């Protein structure tokens, strides 16, 4: 049985497109899962061995594995399957490599991952809870940002701003490449100060982590910490997401 499954996997793994039909539905994942060929082999083996899905030739199948020849990876999109299938896919990937999604900075905060170049890398401690977060994580499309005409538009309407010591305040951290952090800072820190002013959040930028002194690189990661009311953090994240999108 296992040998037959392995043979079937090898017969399709070199194609550019693999369709899977899960045994049951009920859930969907809006974010594409980014996975290596080695990890995809393990995912397919798990799904087929435990009869959670079958390889299909129909485009009506709800799990699509698309090979990206340029990046040498696969993108797995899940239209409809049972939550247990999603958990099996992520568990199989996590046994080989870190879980990765293609998404936005807003998605990164929701999944508590690290963001770089449009990819979210996650290392969840509790996979069951992580799957719940994944299933409830929507795709954030491009955001239209309209310039303000006066400071009056920034004034809150009947909004009470609490102090940082109150429970309504939370802290969010993220790791971003230096080139994106530079764009967020802007000339003389003007862009960052503008985000602080608009969102009314405390935003702190830390020095790059693991930066080699002898070889500067724009791919070094820097940590950004945002503290404020949840709705205000959302305002800051929208603007940061827009800036990072232009700085890729």
The end-to-end distance, rounded to whole angstroms, is 46 Å
Task: Round the Cα radius of gyration to an integer and report it.
Answer: 21 Å
Stretches with pLDDT under 50, minimum 5 residues: 142-154, 163-167
N-to-C order of helices and strands:
HEEHEEEHEHEEHEHHEEH
Give the fraction of residues assigned to helices: 25-40%
Structural domain count: 2
Average pLDDT score: 85
Q: Tell me the number of helical segments per DSSP (H or I, 4 or more residues long).
A: 8
Describe the overall structure:
The protein is α+β, with helices and mostly antiparallel strands and 248 residues long. It is built from 8 helices and 11 strands. The strands form 2 sheets. It has an 8-stranded antiparallel β-sheet with strand order 3-1-4-5-2-6-8-7. It has a 3-stranded antiparallel β-sheet with strand order 9-11-10. A hairpin with a 2-residue loop joins strand 7 and strand 8. It is elongated and about 65 Å long. Mean pLDDT is 85; it is low at 142-154 and 163-167. Residues 168-245 form the K Homology domain. This is K Homology domain-containing protein.
């Amino acid at each position: 049985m296992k040998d037959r499954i392995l043979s079937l996997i090898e017969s399709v793994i070199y194609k550019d497109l693999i369709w899977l039909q899960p045994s049951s539905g009920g859930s969907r994942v809006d974010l594409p899962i980014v996975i290596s060929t080695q990890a995809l082999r393990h995912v397919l083996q798990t799904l087929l061995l435990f009869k959670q899905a079958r390889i299909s030739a129909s485009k009506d199948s709800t799990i699509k594995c698309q090979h990206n020849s340029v990046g040498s990876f696969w993108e797995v999109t899940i239209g409809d399957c049972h939550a247990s299938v999603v958990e099996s896919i992520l568990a199989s990937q996590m046994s080989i490599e870190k879980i990765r999604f293609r998404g936005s900075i807003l998605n990164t905060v929701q999944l508590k991952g690290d963001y770089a170049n449009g990819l979210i890398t996650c290392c969840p401690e509790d996979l069951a809870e992580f799957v719940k977060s994944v299933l409830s994580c929507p795709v954030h499309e491009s955001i239209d940002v309209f310039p303000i005409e006066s400071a009056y538009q920034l004034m809150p309407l009947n909004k009470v701003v609490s102090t940082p010591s109150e429970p309504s305040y939370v802290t969010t951290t993220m790791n971003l490449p230096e080139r994106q952090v530079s764009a967020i800072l802007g000339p003389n820190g003007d862009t960052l100060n503008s985000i602080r002013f608009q969102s009314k959040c405390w935003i702190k930028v830390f020095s790059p982590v693991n930066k080699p002194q002898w070889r500067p690189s724009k791919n070094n990661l820097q940590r950004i910490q945002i503290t404020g009311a949840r709705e205000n953090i959302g305002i800051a994240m929208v603007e940061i997401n827009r800036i990072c999108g232009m700085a890729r």
